[in-house]
Amino acid sequence: MKGIIFKHFESFVVDNFGEATFEDLLDATELATEGPFVGPMTYPDEDLFALVGTAIAKLGISLNDALHAFGVYLFGKLAAQVPMFVDREAGLKSFLLTIHSVIHVEVRKLFPDAETPRFDYVDVSPSSLVIHYMSSRRLCPLFRGLIDGAAAHFEERVEYIETGCMHHGAARCTFEIQFKGSVRQAA
Q1: What is the CATH code of the structural domain delimited by 87-186?
Q2: Where do the 4-vinyl reductase 4VR domain residues begin and end (predicted)?
Q3: Burial per residue of 121-158, b for 16 or more beta-carbon CB atoms within 10 angstroms, e otherwise
């Protein structure tokens, strides 16, 4: 996994629980990596999973809740780094449809060794989209958080259900998303 994800996980923990908590997590976690995580470098996935495992044990939160919260946080950080990919005028649905064919293509240009998830889409209607998520990492709770973070960024209301999940034996996670309009319209 790319170091940028580790750096953002560190920021997430520090921003929400303090620097001392992150240092405690590092001290309590056996990692293959020595030294600080550097953005463009690649690190074993197991190191992130170990850090998250230690965090949920120490903080008393569930794995799904931790990954979801990190996903919401992560979207905001990534959007700030690459604002050209998250044009609010284009809308959330248009953005989601570009993840695999535009954003991950650009990631792999910058980092040829990056292992990005695969997304397939069924564009059901102007207000409905089905996304199939496939990844050996099986980080579907993180993806749910990214969806919610993106919805907040685009100031749009969404509802979604996960009708298939790799954690329950499916070959891929399937998200059926309904776009409910601007949060401003609801107010």
Answers
A1: 3.90.1520.10
A2: 119-179
A3: eeeeeeeebebbbebeebbbbbbbbbbbbbbbbbebbb
